[in-house]
Amino acid sequence: MITNERELKNKYFDLLAEKFNHEEQLASEIISLESILELPKGTEHFVSDLHGEYESFQHVLRNGSGNVRTKVNDIFKDKMSNQEISDFTALIYYPEDKLRMVKSSFETKEPLNRWYETRIDQMIQMVQYSASKYTRSKLRKALPKKFVYIVEELLYKTNELENKTPYYNTLMRQIIETQQADDLIIGLSYTIQRLVVDHLHVVGDIYDRGPEPEKIVETLINYHSVDIQWGNHDAIWIGAYAGSRVCLANILRICARYDNLNIVEDAYGINLRPLLNLAEKYYGDNPAFRPKLRSDSNLSEQEQLQITKIHQAIAMIQFKLEMPIIKRRPSFEMEERLVLEHVDYDNLTYTLHGQTHELTDTCFVTVDPEDPAKLLPEEQEVIDKLLVSVQESEKLKRHMTFLMDKGSLYLPYNGNLLIHGCIPIDEHGNMEGMEIDGTFYAGRPLLDQFEMYMRKAFRNKDITDDLATDLVWYLWTGKYSSLFGKRAMTTFERYFIKDKATHKEEKNPYYSLREDPKVVGKLLEDFDLDPEQGHIINGHTPVKEIDGEDPIKADGKMIVIDGGFSKVYQSTTGIAGYTLLYNSYGMQLVAHQHFNTKENVLRYGADELSTKRLVDKELQRKRIRDTNTGQFIKEEIRNLKELMSHRYTD
Fold it and tell me: Where does the UniProt annotation place the signal sequence (predicted)?
């Protein structure tokens, strides 16, 4: 048994010595790691608020927010026309589709083979350029596995004395003759995509509103390097799997609202028939609950009516399920959200803060005015069956486990703070907080508590009414939640009250004070980050560029990158989202225009980018030694040097 720190250190050295059992091996590793520290830092790519918009996300991911085209221009701007550059970049983005188009345009093999030779050579040049700041070992891992030897020969070819000219010519000819050219081009395209972005940050909200969040998660699972900062919409999906019935009701209500129930039923295999049967029994048409149809929707009137009924049924279950949580958790300070207790069911009015409002489009048929929180036996049975179905979905389990493994509530990374929503503060910039299990928390400790309880709820998904499970729901809707960032969620009012003044959700002062460099600097300090060099990178609140709002705030210390990936918000924001690139030279904010179709890119080379805007330019180029990865490498070097001193130095 290890009894003290010295013994633990010796045990660690023993394990290291097994890996490096000769002095030469140890020295070689130290040399390699010290050298890696001097390489330029890799490019970080930041996206947020994807909201199920898989095709738009795919395009941004494939083009590296314009990084691919930038590198193509660097190499070929004097050798290719703009149209040729567009065709080449489209090939890199969508190699399978572009190859089909190109091959169909040739009538004979000879010109096609010349095209293959030219494109493979250009691809090799792109790989060389994109990999210029990586070690050969890291590049090798990014190469298409079946072509590693061939690609390395082409990458590192030297022919000063022309001794190998026949060799290289035969290599290229045989690639084409053996019909491997397509696979090689496809493999090189994905290698280039991987090399232009070293690491991806998803700053929250993969789920809800858009139609294909599950495809986004599958893409992220297979991505080479990624982290996720949970958004409020991600939290309720995690909460539903973790056993929260009220989170489950919320995701079903939102899916019904945005005509996305197929995500639940088809993508995740969750049986909605019991919910439909309940809805058909108790509810009819209701204009307040009709689904928001996408432009490409082909729902029949009957299907729309079914969704309208489901929408009402699950909304009423949600309002009922909220009430016991609010009552058993007084520290949540949410008594005003006992909405069904504020209803006069005889006169159909709603009283809150001393004001009475007329209710319209009501659907209270399953509500007992004497006990409004009480679920009908049928409602209880339906939500219980749905929870079982959710927790038995293997695909959902895999996706939620991935979100937990790769995710966190916030992330300090390379001197910046990544957080989806906000850090709750008051109007003076002081930290706001709440009591959790008898202790008051604010600021970073509050966020740490939220994350700890979220992980606890996920580990114990069979316990459905504990504090941990309730806190996951609180993250969705509570006034001190860093993910919600508002004083109250007015879902009930939006459905049933026409006075839009009641719909307003007051934001936490963070959202106005984040314009102030001093406030942002203090927040960075609270997370042990340099207020002069660091940035806070936010999502969550769409930037209304159409109204002149600037996503770069607080003298460049605050960057908000939710500009409207979600098509629902694009008429409000005026664009289709912001992304951020951070390489060794500095930061660039990229604004994206509405993504039409992949076919538009393939035929016309449209990249859907509008502008790149410099956020910060590094006075001195950042190297790996200046990054989080560099800190780990430095620690490893210290341990290796200590081992060398301990084992091999007299």
Answer: none
Cβ pair 11, 598 in contact under 8 A: no
Q: How far is Cα 409 from Cα 454, in angstroms, rounded to an integer? A: 9
Q: Are 649 and 642 in contact (CB under 8 A)?
A: no
302, pLDDT greater than 70 = yes
Rounded CA separation 431/433 (Å): 7
Backbone angles phi, psi at 541, to 5 degrees: -110, 115
Q: Which residues pair with 75 in a beta bridge?
A: none
**Whose structure tokens read 């009423």?**
316
Lowest mean pLDDT among 118-122, 409-413, 442-446, 545-549: 545-549
One-letter amino acid identity for 260? Answer: N
Q: In what order do the strands lie in the sheet with 536-538?
A: 410-413, 416-419, 536-538, 558-560, 552-553
Q: Write the DSSP assignment of 93-135 as a string of letters.
A: HSHHHHHHHHHHT-SSHHHHHHHHHHHHHHHHHHHHHHTTTS-
- Beta pairing, strands 586-592 & 578-583: antiparallel
Which secondary-structure segment (H or E) carries 229? strand 226-229
In terms of Cα–Cα distance, which of 617, 606, 549, 548 is closest to 581? 617
Q: Give the pLDDT confidence of 246-258 residue by residue, as tens digits.
A: 999 999 999 999 9
| Cα–Cα nearest to 489, from 327, 244, 319, 365 | 319
DSSP code for 523: H
Closest to 570 in 3D by CA, of 598, 610, 604: 610
CB atoms within 10 A of CB 332: 23
| Cβ neighbours around 623 below 10 Å, total | 16
Strands (E), 2-156: 44-47
Which residue reads 């792109």 in tokens? 126
- Mean pLDDT over residues 328-344, rounded? 96
CA 217 vs CA 58, 234, 399, 411: distances in Å: 11, 11, 7, 19
3-class SS of residue 25: helix
